Amino acid sequence: MQKEASIREPLILGHKTYHDITEDVCRSIEGKAPKTWYVLFGIALILGLFGIGCILYLLGTGIGTWGLNKTVQWAWDITNFVWWVGIGHAGTLISAVLLLFRQRWRMAINRAAEAMTIFAVFMAGVFPLIHMGRLWVGYWVMPIPNQFGSLWVNFNSPLLWDVFAISTYLSVGFVFWYIGLLPDFATIRDRAKNPVSKKMYSILSFGWSGRAKHWNRFEIVSLVLAGLATPLVFSVHSIVSFDFATSVIPGWHTTIFPPYFVAGAVFSGFAMVQTIMLIVRKGLKLEAYLHVKHIEYMNIVIMVTGSIVGVAYLTELFMSWYSGVEYESYAFINRATGPYWWAYASMMTCNVVSPQLMWFKKLRRSLLFTFFISIVVNIGMWFERFVIIVTSLHQDYLPSSWSMFHPTWVDIGIYIGTIGLFFVFYLAFARYFPILPIAELKTILKTSGESYKNGTAGLSGNKPIPAVETAAPVQEVVAPKVDAVVPLVETLESTAKPATEEITDVEKEGRINSLIEKLGKGSAENKNDLKLVSGVGPKLEGTLNDIGIYTFEQVSKMTKAEYDLLDSITGTFPGRAERDNWAEQAKTLMNK
Amino acid sequence: MADRVIYAMYDDDMVLLDGAKKLVSEGVHITDVFSPFPVHGIDPVIGVKHTRLGIVSFMFGLLGLALSIVGFKYMMIDNWPINIGGKPNFSLMENFPSFVPITFEFTVLFAAHGMALTYLFRNKTLPGMPADNPYPRTTDDRFVMEIRLSDNTKFSASELHAKIKETDIIEIEEKDYVVIK
């Protein structure tokens, strides 16, 4: 087993067992959704539907419903596109790059961030599709033979590179996400009680069973996909930046764009992850798995990428002057001092100044401050794209055609609509999908769980048990050979099998009576599910019930003397009850 | 005669691993292990070979690379060359810088999807497939060894039971072996 330095902060707080992880993640899926969820979902749905309405109106009427004019021919559509693609960068970065660097803290956020990526890229994809004008011939961007009435698509064009980059990114990201989801869907499937959800999750889990060979393949597939996705992440936003960088517009054709856009994308993606996860951890009570240390790590990423973005802004300014090209210099002077100075100023404040506050440890460990900064960064990154696109266009080579851009209600409606739709998807995801990777978290529990690191995990739960050499006689059930499919047999006769020592029935009777006397009488009517106590299986539960132990209350009263007495009666698992500390477990179960 | 199988249940991955090592050293063949997460170190013990999916991915990647280059050559150079901004359109080599981004994307597309589909088919995990883990809790916190009698002809069933019970199991069950998928 891998070891982790003891000075590293634990990634999973408190004492958790494997079963606790399953419970904590499945709780929100199996339970009822709170009222707030319905309220938020309702709001998001209304906004989303309004957005769809605006898109339909746009398609029916034409691009003229946007505020574009002959000088500013590209504005909010492409701003929103780049903004959403940028947000869609954190997920794959977290799951792929951090996997390659073996950063275990990624496991608290990777599932949720990948979901965010996929939904954000959906929203991004809407904009190029609708701004093509005639959506119904959108398939012309595919390289199809020219019998369809056009030439081949132009493979020299960055816009076509974008088509390939975004669709590859979306589909590979989806596959990566879904392959990780399969084992977790299987967990939910095997716990589901309601037949409809059982059916649904068994379809979603593709019949995953967790065989050793499958896990072997799973790990390699994850690793190779991470290796493929890492250059993909960097290529996608580089290609998005080529849309501008390969043009000849002053303010756009700079070679610094690809790295600067990638850093900006990581910056805005992490900000969105912070915004969403701070709400999710609170709403789904996942504080033990996603705590201040995780937030701090993300804030450090935000600080570093924010600084890269800041350096890029200043380099751009310097180069516009140093190049000696007057059009280039004018574009930047106009950005900072022209009619759109307010957009430039908010971009600079939000993206350059605000992440520098994260140098203070107190601030980057404060949840409220982090939430505030994450919103600020999201706004700032939207302004960055607006500044690059609109201010570079609005005062072109010919002063007589200079103009401003005014968004119409359709522009605004579509933007708000994509935010609504994004949250519709996201809220549905948070409700029905495992928001933390259950299987992956279990692999780091013993190396990074708090109770395992400080050694207090000693008594209960799935703990490595030192003594293996004790020859424990074990209950045994041999199903009749005629049965084709044998259900889990819970025969009680088997408990009477010879134990370590032969005891007469009379003696046994006496011991049972004295045991029950100490623990108090229980009845079959108000019995608890004793199987929830770790170490008690269906057969042992039967044995306990047979003796007269039915409730957690009874189990919680057990001490060393009772354990020994129980062992002498059942003769099955000597020392097990004590080692697993049933009484302590039963106490916690009682209080649930 | 139908095959019989013994399922031995453990409640901890490390305990299962110790048990598996002990059983294997005694000559027992463990057919499979069901676990809620990858048990590191179990593969060499029970004789699971290293997967070749990495090679599959590489070959699909090569296929994507070849297809994209053939596509550019045919579409942009041979079938309908067009002069776009004066970019060279008469030879693949000279026009290739413009094609690099899509060559890369296509390679990744094929490598990723080819491997993912192979993975799903090889695992028999496809939409609508039934699950075949013997107990539902093996996807939660239980670890189960599958030991088939036909793989262990040198031991009798009772000998196997005795051997398994020497490890720290929590339950053991023998039943007919049923192939679900």
Q: CATH topology of the largest domain in chain B, anyone? A: Alpha-Beta Plaits
Q: Would you state the CATH class of the largest domain in chain B? A: Alpha Beta
**How is the main sheet of chain A built?**
none
Order of helices and strands of chain A: HHHHHHHHHHHHHHHHHEHHHHHH
Helix content of chain B: 40-55%
- The mean pLDDT of chain A is 83
Provide an overview of this structure:
The complex is a heterodimer of chains A (592) and B (181). In chain A, 63% of the residues lie in helices and 0% in strands. Chain A has 23 helices and 1 strand. Chain A has helices at 18-30, 35-61, 76-87, 90-100, 110-131, 158-191, 195-204, 212-245, 257-283, 292-322, 326-337, 341-353, 361-364, 367-394, 409-432, 438-448, 450-453, 505-519, 538-547, 552-556, 560-570, 576-580, 582-590; one strand at residues 477-478. Chain B is an alpha+beta fold and 181 residues long. Chain B folds into 2 domains: 4-49 and 130-176, Alpha-Beta Plaits; 53-123. Chain B has 5 helices and 4 strands, in the order βαβαααβαβ. Chain B has helices spanning 13-25, 42-46, 53-79, 92-123, 157-165; strands at residues 4-10, 32-34, 143-148, 171-176. In chain B, strands 2-3-1-4 form a 4-stranded antiparallel sheet. In chain B, helix 3 runs antiparallel to helix 4 (92-123). The longest helix of chain B has 32 residues, at 92-123. At the A-B interface, helix 1, helix 6, helix 8, helix 16 and strand 1 of A face helix 1, strand 2, helix 2, helix 3 and helix 4 of B.
Q: What are the defining features of this structure?
A:
heterodimer, A: 592 residues, mainly alpha, Formate dehydrogenase/DMSO reductase fold, 63% helix, elongated, B: 181 residues, Alpha-Beta Plaits, 2 domains, 4-stranded antiparallel sheet, 5 helices, rod-shaped
